[in-house]
Fold this sequence. Notes:
This protein may play a role in the biosynthesis of the prosthetic group of nitrogenase (FeMo cofactor). This is Nitrogenase iron-molybdenum cofactor biosynthesis protein NifN. Keywords: Nitrogen fixation. The protein is of the alpha/beta class. The protein folds into 3 domains: 19-158, Nitrogenase molybdenum iron protein domain (Rossmann fold); 170-288, Nitrogenase molybdenum iron protein domain (Rossmann fold); 290-426, Rossmann fold (3-Layer(aba) Sandwich), CATH 3.40.50.1980. It is built from 16 helices and 14 strands. It has helices at residues 19-28, 41-55, 68-73, 76-90, 101-106, 110-120, 139-158, 181-192, 226-230, 246-256, 269-283, 289-309, 320-332, 361-367, 381-386, 411-426, and strands at residues 3-5, 33-38, 62-63, 94-99, 126-130, 170-175, 197-200, 237-241, 260-263, 313-317, 336-342, 356-358, 373-376, 390-393. The strands form 3 sheets. It has a 6-stranded parallel beta sheet, with helices on both faces. The radius of gyration is 22 Å and the shape is globular. It starts with a strand and ends with a helix.
Amino acid sequence: MTIVKLDKKLAINPLKVSQTLGGVLALQGLFRAIPLVHGSQGCAAFIKALMTQHYREPVSIQTTALQEMNIIFGGERSTIEAMETILNKHHPSLMAVLSTGLTETAGDDLIGNIKNYLKTNEPNCFIFPVALPDFEGSLESGFQLTVEAMIRGLVEQQKFTLPMKKKQNQINLLAGSFLTAGDVMEIKKIIQSFGFSVITAPDISTSLTGSLQKGFSPLSQGGATREQLQGLFESEMTIAVGTSLEKSAQMLEAAAGIPYRLFPSLTGLKANDEFFSFLQSLSGKKGDSFYQWERDNLLDCILDSHFYFSGKKIVIGLEPDHLFSIVNVCKELGGTIDGLVSSFSAKVLSNMEEDIFIGDLDDLETMADNADLWISNSHGEKGADRKNVAFLPIGFPIFHQIGSSLFTSVGYRGTTNLIIKMSNLLM
């Protein structure tokens, strides 16, 4: 395995997405939350437009709308004014102040400014800053850093009461950025079927699906409540889905003595057998027989589809956690991985056998000369068309079809759905 960072002077058809967008996505999974993007108005406008196209739901976001003079003389005053306006007008339960490439390059001490503000003010709102420069990482790392900053802030609030008494059969679920709202809901249902109650953070399954929409609100209208976030420290176990959230699980373990189990992926037969085996061992229950039926369906689907995958060449361009997940299921089906591109170098990529290039979708296009299937977000569709390769849209953003946020590719049922989609393109 080799991770190769291509030496290009510019990105052509970028795969990378702003870290700040990942932070905004994480806040959508928290109830009555609002992300405050500390940067120019265009930064927030682009994020809002892209997320609205993908999810087709209202997106909670505000901006400090910095101008040239704010950058020259420092953006602290603009940050505080924007925060106080939001607090007085919208009364959020949670607010994350997210930096951008603009303010990081200018040298604004966002974290220090917010800490100083909170020393002299006690708003009825959980506020935490997150440094998310655009020139590093991508959507996944922005999501990861925001969850870590949230837990760090919660630990600081709860430090005099930790460790807490544990609630029997309560589990924390840390859901990675690559999971759709449908995926998160499916994982919650599986865990609950073994008799556990689940606190999910962030929880986009109840916020970016329209399930709780009751008119317009500038705040997120679903997700984990502030009380549920405080309850994270009372759980008996943490399940992290996606390697990017392992550090968050470790922070909960260090602060509250909560053990954790990491599942890099819940797509594929092997990954789900391990997941269900773990839940059976943890609960002492066999689980619902319905899932045995779903597993039988998956086995039958694998048998039917392996004829279409045998010898077929697949190129994939996705965020690191998502890339790991999709590559594993393609290999289970007998497909040949002919090219892999990711947006940045992450820990999970070092666990893969294949060579991975850190680049853009133009790089993936150069690898697709002999490919049979191209898997990436919607920005890759034209490249696949030029190469006359079957195209499967997965990841973020997807803007030429509806229901992407509800599509499920985890669990036995979700894996079956994904295999059917891929097989039909290869037939």
